[in-house]
Design brief:
By secondary structure, the protein is an alpha/beta fold. The chain is built from 15 helices and 21 strands. About 30% of the residues lie in helices and about 20% in strands. It is globular and about 60 Å long.
């Protein structure tokens, strides 16, 4: 029996009326933890749920079958979109396996760890913080029957029912000390997306961001040599020749990026890559160097064409800067992505029309424009502000933010339909809005729906299912858009 069964629950699965579309991305987070455990001499049973072949992966029976024969300790990494299903299904699993120790991790439970433990007694502990600091002490403590009291970076429930938060371990400042992921535990040839972590954390205070708060708004970076060595190893192992630098802060300073490009060029690997950029940290010299050394796609979080909204969300730049940088970028890269967020509570219709005008302008320039409905995740400043003010969020069963799609929904244009067979899951969501706020909206009638109508009229969201292939809408969850691109540029969706 293994010391731990470690499960990746993160996957991209979009269901349409006539088909299901999936993209498989190497699960970096759980493979990092697997390697750390292996180097500590522990036996890991690694399982990637995105590779399942169930007719319906979104029922408890599938989870129970997938975890058949698991170790006494089961750890699962999950993002916010599949957090409700994972919790819902694990209740059945725990009923069948009361002696198993179930620990939840990943970014999905961030900021709601206590609430999960208080309302979901079938979850024994929740990880909070860097898993590499927590995972070995956790496994060793459970093996010895010592519980969670001495395990850093976890929330757990005592026998008397009280929830306890253990001390946070110091951040890993030298990311080069983290061993490469345990690629040998998966068949790399079955995956479509190969991500690389170049940094952890972002210092910017964007109010809607769900990532920077998790890292305490402190950023640490890997060395150029360490990143390039990982790319070379993946190329050697599986012929990978296209990489996504999927962290938000690769472009931390122009000189640092140019230094990376120089070192990559000296390596003579000749590999292609994609990265996320930041408007106020990008410049022509840097972008030119990126394009010269294999960067085929640069992605910008523009978020709004309104200076008032940019200031309210603390983006750190004005719309004029976005116009200048994107205009220059489209002449350098095979593709430039411009991400937008719409539906802010304080976004007036005038603000919104400024965004729409800018999106149309960028689309005419040749950029791919990817709008997403605002998602209220619990660790974000914007959610905390409106929750503190007692603002009620509304659940709409026909409209979910793109980043919260789970795979249960049937997608048709911008709207979704819920199969009645999954009604208990959505009753679970609506009964716990403070755990799953990402499924809810602010002012549907006055804020969201009027803006959605305009987006559809302007072609950013298709009016009919038949128009899906012609639209760049649906934010990061756009597998149909990805299909239409060239082979090397096809991986447009966030993974892991």
């Amino acid at each position: 029996m293994a010391d731990i069964t470690l499960v990746n629950m993160n996957m991209l699965y979009v269901r349409y009326y006539d088909q299901v579309e999936r993209e498989y991305h190497v699960p970096l987070g759980t493979l990092y933890l697997t390697r750390v455990l292996e180097e500590a001499g522990l036996d890991v049973d690694f399982r990637d749920y995105q590779m399942n072949e169930y007719d319906d992966p979104f029922v408890a029976e599938s989870i129970c079958d997938f975890l058949d024969g698991s170790a006494k300790l089961v750890g699962l990494s999950v993002m916010a979109n599949l957090l409700p299903f994972t919790l819902f299904a694990l209740r059945e699993f725990k009923e069948r396996n009361p002696d198993k120790v179930v620990v939840l991790g990943g970014v999905g439970p961030a900021s709601v760890e206590r609430k999960i433990l208080e309302r979901c007694p079938w979850i024994d502990a929740v990880s909070a913080g860097e898993g590499e600091r927590m995972i070995v002490p956790l496994v060793e403590s459970v093996k010895q029957g010592d519980g969670f009291a001495k395990v850093p970076n976890v929330f757990w429930r005592r026998d008397d029912g009280e929830t306890v938060q253990n001390d946070q371990a110091p951040r890993i400042e030298n990311l080069d000390t983290i061993p490469f992921p345990a690629w040998d535990r998966v068949d790399l040839s079955k995956y479509e997306g190969y991500g690389v972590m170049t940094s952890r954390g972002c210092p910017y205070p964007c109010t809607f961001c769900s990532v920077a708060p998790i890292w305490g708004r402190r950023a640490f970076h890997r060395s150029h040599a360490n990143i390039i060595a990982e790319m070379a190893e993946l190329n050697r192992r599986a012929g990978v020749d296209l990489f996504l630098f999927q962290d938000e802060f690769f472009v931390s300073a122009p000189d640092n990026v140019v230094g990376f490009c120089d070192e990559l060029e000296r390596s003579k690997l000749g590999l292609d890559w994609k990265a996320f950029g930041r408007v106020n940290l990008s410049e022509g010299r840097m972008m030119k160097r990126m394009a010269e050394t294999g960067c085929i796609e640069l992605r910008f979080g523009i978020e709004s064409g309104s200076d008032a909204v940019l200031e309210a969300t603390r983006k750190g730049f004005a719309s004029e800067a976005a116009v200048s940088i994107v205009s220059e970028a489209v002449g350098l890269f095979d593709r430039v992505d411009a991400f937008y967020v719409w539906g802010f509570p304080f976004e007036t219709m005038d603000d919104f029309y400024q965004s729409v005008f800018q999106m149309i302008s960028f689309r005419m320039l040749g950029a791919r424009v990817l709008p997403s409905l605002l998602c209220f995740l619990p660790q974000t400043d914007i959610y905390k502000e409106y929750a503190d003010e007692g603002q009620a969020l509304e659940f709409c069963p026909s409209l979910f933010p793109e980043y919260i799609l789970t795979g249960h929904e049937i997608c048709r244009s911008a709207k979704v339909e819920l199969d009645p067979v999954y009604s208990p899951l959505y009753e679970f969501i609506t009964a716990n809005p403070d755990i799953f706020p990402g499924f809810f909206h602010y002012d549907l009638e006055g804020n969201v729906l009027p803006k959605l109508k305009v987006m559809q009229e302007m072609g950013f969201y298709p009016l009919d299912a038949e128009d899906l292939d012609a639209s760049d809408s649906c934010g990061a969850h756009s597998p149909r858009v990805a299909q239409a691109t060239t082979a090397k540029a096809q991986l447009s969706v966030h993974g892991d």
